[in-house]
Amino acid sequence: MSGELTKARQKLTGINASLKMGKYLAAAQALNDAIVIMLSAQLMKSEREEFTQMLDSTVYALNNHKELRKFYPLLLHYAPGGEKKLLEEIYEMRKVLQEDVNENAQKDLDALENRKREGLARGQQHLDEQQFDEARQVFDKLTGEFPGDAELKADIADRYYKSGLNQDAVGHLSQAINESPESIHLYNRIGMVLRKMQDYESAENYFRRALGICQTDEYLFFNLGRLYYDWQKWGKMAEAAKLAIAINPNFVEAKKLLAFAQKKLG
Which of 1, 4, 138, 139 is the most buried (most CB within 10 A)? Predict the structure, then answer.
């Protein structure tokens, strides 16, 4: 138990540092944990006196911390032997502080989303005005601010694609796939862009990679069939259309694709 008591001491002595850094929830949690350890231990008289003094000092520090009072105005009460009552008060403090943490976290998330929207809007305006270099600068800066955000890169890729900047779209989709290799829709998107660029082999590779992850998406097979239509590979086109129809027998466009392929095959 001596190791646990050492841990409790460390938690109590670290509370002032947490208060100085504005980590009020961490301070309350540390006090809570120290009391739990204390209550579960068989303390000698000297150890109990030590912890009583430490708890008293800690409660005094919390009650007299002006910034903490702004978030939690209620005072804690402690007297020797009143550890369980103090735990109840700390529980209420932690609930209030956790709510504040959650609220601030949501505000931070909202602020980040606003920055994304503003950056996307600026980049889109440049695209609309055919200021492509300026658009690239805005989008590159945005992806630099949000590394690892595959959906952001996919969004930017769609904007490039709609503006006819297919190579830029492929570049961003490739990065997005590297960051989120299980996202089937990214393979589908890059396959469609590469098909438009008439890079049929690369497009086929991405569609096949997507189908390696999921064999139950009829639209993947349909888009693969569309690729074979452009590529004039009628046998493969018919095969892809049949697989789409096998998944969804009511897939009208896939039936049209199959009929066209069969006509070409004679």
Answer: 139
